[in-house]
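Kindly review this record before class:
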Amino acid sequence: MMKKGNSIQGISSLKYVKGQAYNLYLQYKYKWIEWLEEQSAKMSNGQLRISLVSFFVLGLLGCTYSVYRGIRGYAPPTVVLEPVRVLTPLPPEESFPVVTDSAFSNAIPDLNHFLDRLRNPEEGLIFYDSIQRLNPGFLDSIKMFTHYYTYSKMKNYETRKKGKEQTTP
């Protein structure tokens, strides 16, 4: 189970890493700007004008080409999907263990307790979100399993009760 201190520490360390990455990005950005300023300071006014005009013409040509392709109806190449065959391991030769009714009756309260703990806003929400992200539909399956089991248990109880009522004179 994830503790509250660990989750806050994990979130703060993630923010720290993001902050460091952003600072590194800004540092390289300013170095690039300084380099461009040094290069433009070395150029004469005529060279600056020629660079500006060539940059403008290349940008205009790129935009014109994009519009031309859009009007012409360019279609990107199609992607062909092929089926993939995956080898699965053979099931074991020995039979699976038989799960008794008492094992299920012991597991259902544990599952209900687990689901109740996930509703706890302090520590459960982080764990709940990670389960939903990694295994979508898993918690719904657990809920459906518990409802199905309790319904079948009630159904068995009712049929046994009816059987006892019929056998009594």
About this structure: Helices lie at 4-42, 45-72, 101-118, 124-134, 138-167. Residues 14 and 20 are 10 Å apart (CA to CA). The chain has five helices and no strands. The radius of gyration is 33 Å.
